[in-house]
Amino acid sequence: MNNKSINSNKQFMIGNGILAFGVFFIVCLFLYLGFRNQSKSNDKEKTFAGIYTVEIADSFTGDSLSVYINDSLLFNSSIGSTAIKFQVKRFAEESTLMIVDNHTDEITPFNLNPEGSQIAVEKKNGKIFIQETAND
Questions:
Q1: Residue-wise DSSP of 11-32
Q2: Whole-model pTM?
Q3: Coil, helix or strand at residue 69
Q4: Could you report the per-residue pLDDT of 10-20, keeping only the tens digit for each?
Q5: pLDDT digits over 70-124, tens only?
Q6: Were 64 and a residue from 102, 118, 127, 131 both cysteine, which residue would form a disulfide, CB within 3.0 to 4.6 Å?
Q7: Percent of the chain with pLDDT strictly greater than 70
């Protein structure tokens, strides 16, 4: 057999081995860089000061409403003859209150105060009105 062909095959295999080692090193480096900050952010959950107090007036009697803050469903039911009041602890830096009329699928959005507040939701002449007052 020819020694020249054996040497070229040997060089080819050594080159492939070095290339495989380099790819393995680069993958490990990217995994390390990607996951090194993840453990620090999971150690401390973000908490926000402030409470939102939402009051749905009795002017919605007989209507079916859904109340969302950001993408979290807080309330989904038909309204009785009494006003409904509930409190939600602030859980995001910026929050949007969305009132959805389930019969017409009409959405009324409202940007909330970052420090927490009291929100009154009323219905006048078929339109939804939202009034916000700051917490004392």
A1: HHHHHHHHHHHHHHHHHHHHHH
A2: 0.64
A3: strand
A4: 888 999 999 99
A5: 889 998 998 888 888 989 988 888 889 999 988 888 999 999 988 889 999 999 9
A6: 102
A7: 90
Angle (nearest 5°) at CA 22 between 18 and 27: 150
Rama region for 52: left / alpha / beta (φ>0; ψ in -120 to 50; rest)? beta
Q: Look at the chain and count its residues.
A: 136
Residues 6+ apart with CB under 8 A from 49: 90, 115, 116
Cα–Cα dist 69/93, whole Å: 12
Beta carbons within 10 angstroms of residue 46's beta carbon: 8
The CA-CA-CA angle for residues 21, 26, 31, to 5°, reads 125
Beginning with the edge strand found earlier in the chain, give each strand of the sheet holding 72-78 in spatial order: 72-78, 64-69, 96-101, 106-111
